[in-house]
Structure formats: structure tokens, C-alpha cells
Amino acid sequence: MAVKAMYDYTWPSRSAAELYGDDQLVHVWWRGNPYFVSAQTFRFPKAMPFGALVNDVLKGFFTADPDFVPESLDTAAWKVDHEDLVPDLEASLEANGVGHKSLLEFSL
């Protein structure tokens, strides 16, 4: 159901891309995981290599799930904004099609 304001809503977005400079917000979702049932939002540099995201951030973050095996991310199936992605681990997030507020999802 849509919500309609009873007045002009003129407040600027507090998460607009212009406010983040060389960084961007990225929603990361481990699809089908009962421990992380929704996407987690991170702030990453646009120039961050995809491999650094996986190895330096996600492998550590998702160890909160006691059943997680970090090496399983090496063979994960990836999607960005619901489109299949075969990531280039050496290329930046931006070069892999990951933009501001993109949904980056993986399944194991």
C-alpha cells in the first residue's frame, strides 16, 4: 500500500550518492541463510577490488554464523541487482557493476 504525505515532503535524502564521495553503500545478502535473513548494508570504496570485499570483509563478517565455512565463498554464485554475476576478483566493485545501493547477493 502506497503512502501519500499530507504535505510537501522536501527533506533531502541522507543516503544520496553525492554524500559518499568515492564510497558507496552496498547491500549484501546471503540468500537462503536462516541466520542472516536480510541484506546487511556496508560502506565500501567504489575502487575496492571485488576480491578484497570477499576475502577481507565478507569472510570475516559472516563467521558470525557458526555453520559458515569461509572457503565456501570461493565458489559462491553471485548476483548484482538480481542479475547473474561472474565477478572479476581483480576488478573494482564499480567495474563489476556494483553501484550505490546495489543489492549484491550470493548463495552457497
Q: Record the strand order, biggest sheet.
A: 2-1-5-3-4
CATH topology: Ubiquitin-like (UB roll)
Strand content: 25-35%
Biggest β-sheet strands, sense, barrel: 5 strands, mixed
Task: Please name the fourth-level CATH homologous superfamily.
Answer: Phenol hydroxylase
Give me the CATH architecture, please.
Roll
Q: Give helix % range.
A: 10-25%
Query: Roughly what is the average pLDDT, rounded to an integer?
Result: 94
Note down, in words, how this protein is organized.
The chain has one helix and five strands; from the N terminus they run ββαβββ. It has 108 residues and is an alpha+beta fold. Strands 2-1-5-3-4 form a five-stranded mixed beta sheet, with no helix packed on it. The longest helix is centred in the middle third of the chain and has 12 residues, at 50-61. The protein is globular and about 50 Å long.
Question: Quick gist of this model?
Answer:
The protein has 108 residues and is α+β, with helices and mostly antiparallel strands. The protein has one domain: Phenol hydroxylase (Ubiquitin-like (UB roll)), CATH 3.10.20.
